[in-house]
Amino acid sequence: MEKTVTEAIQFRRSVRVFKSDSPLDDNKVTDCIANAVLAPTSSNMQLWEFYHITNSNMLMEMTTACLGQNAAKTAQQMVVVVSRKDLWRKRAKANISFLKSQYGEKDKADYTKRESFALNYYQKLIPSIYIDFLGILGGLKYIVFQGIGLFKPIYRQVRHSDMRIVAHKSAGLAAQNFMTSMAAIGYDTCPMEGSDTKMVKSILNLPYGAEINMVIACGIRDEHGIYGPRFRVPFKEVYKKLD
Questions:
Q1: CATH number at residue 161
Q2: Average pLDDT of the segment spanning 27-47
Q3: Is the pTM of this model over 0.85?
Q4: In the predicted model, is pLDDT for residue 105 greater than 90?
């Protein structure tokens, strides 16, 4: 029986050693990736891709790229979450096409105020935030927006580095969706921060603008696959209720 959300979150651990005789169902892993893309994403831009690796030779290459850590060595499969800030134009156009399909064919003057705002958001605002040239435009925009911010609240994360962070945050949310979905069906994962991302990009034949968000090893936990009990700092240290 599939676990509840709470059960899945509590079941999920970063498993360092997977069983060698317990293969995963490719289709079930794919279904979990399908859940990943339902994660919230900034401006619905969906600047992510997911590479599902089942090929044994590629898994060996990825193990080397992941610095030979045990989770990589014993993984039955891997999923690489890739941040694609460089695809912002394509994703913005996809949003525009979707919105127009929902609003129906009509002249520009016939759009409601809300519909016009949504279309302008992707046609004008998104380009103004994402367009950059060697970081120069981002720096200029940052100065302008900080100046405006002296007089009223305004969005301030407009530099190239800021937009990279935005894309990676969304990819991280999707990765968590994936790992929770895997846990819900009794499959285990380990998000691996330690990797040679340049080598990973080469293995996956990714373009320059793509960035590795994380590599996730997948399998069924070995008896000794979890290295110790779960540790979290006391909840009261991180929970701040503002009455």
A1: 3.40.109.10
A2: 98
A3: yes
A4: no
What is the count of structural domains for the chain?
1
| 35's tokens | 């859940």
Of the candidates 97, 93, 91, 95, the residue with the CA atom closest to the CA atom of residue 47: 91
Domain that holds residue 121: 1-243
